[in-house]
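Person: I have long wanted to understand how a fold can be written as tokens. Underneath my words sits a plain record pairing an amino acid chain with its backbone structure tokens. Those tokens are not coordinates but codes from a learned vocabulary of shapes. I should like you to check that the lines agree and flag anything odd. The protein I mean follows directly.
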Amino acid sequence: MLTTLEQGETPWRAGPLRMRPERLIFGETYEDAAIELRAFAPRSRVFAIAGAGATARALAAAGHSVTAVDISAAQIDYAKARAAGGVAQTEAAVKTGAAERLLAWGRALAVAAGWRRERVEEFLTLDDCAAQTAYWDRWLDTPAWSAAVEVLLGPRLLGLWYRSAFVRSLPRDFGRLLRERLRRGWATHANRANPYAALLLMGKTPPEPGRALEPIRFVCADAAEFLESAAPASFDAFALSNIGDGATQEYMRRLNAAIRRAAAPGAMQVTRSFAESVGGTEENSAAQDRSLLWGVVEVAKVPGVVDAVDVGCAEQAGGESCCIC
């Protein structure tokens, strides 16, 4: 008998962590919304995975019409509350999810490995990338910290916190790769202007993007189920987070088919993954993502959807193919 996952069920219904699914997983968003803001055409109709809601809020503040969907009722309630708080929301509105508790533990291990708060604070004030990498190599990427990260992010210890499907989706040398991604980030982005660096190293909440130009629509649903029920050509853009990490091929085939059905001509999508890029592609913008964590940040047109130029050309040709397309 096929299991629900083999039938195309999402692995996110139970959540990636070994915890009760009704609890909050993400209190913060570890994704650089500037990627989506550059990729999406102005005033797009955007489907977004809600998570903690920061990407949806940034897109709405830029004038996009955003539908934020998450399978977790706790995440939807939290993201909705954060959006209602707006720019003036207080620190009390920001809650600690399971991911933040794990990161706080990791920061405590860094202190035990020799990190000093004043050095981290000084590091975050730097704005010269060459100076940042030199500082990182000398004071923070120490042998003790490096060894701790590679053990901590090994499959055996990760399996104590994360569900097996999610752990299997990660590279086996995830600790080493994460250290390489961090160093790549210090060599690319000025720390002083990067709120995600302070979020990761010190747990500081990034500033709010501004007031939404129109309200965000929040929906508690599985992404594939929601898009299967949406009208054709409902969305111009898709901010998919890392929904594919830990998912089965069956579920991703189902989700991708639903995206194609709901995508308007020329629709764009942004997809992240903790996996390492295989061979590298022009669409991989991981190095440009200031949140520093991702191996893949794919920015591309939704595959299998006719481009708007092709649609207009076909209409001019009476529905027949056009030789200049």
Observations:
- Confidence is low (pLDDT under 50) at residues 1-7, 311-325.
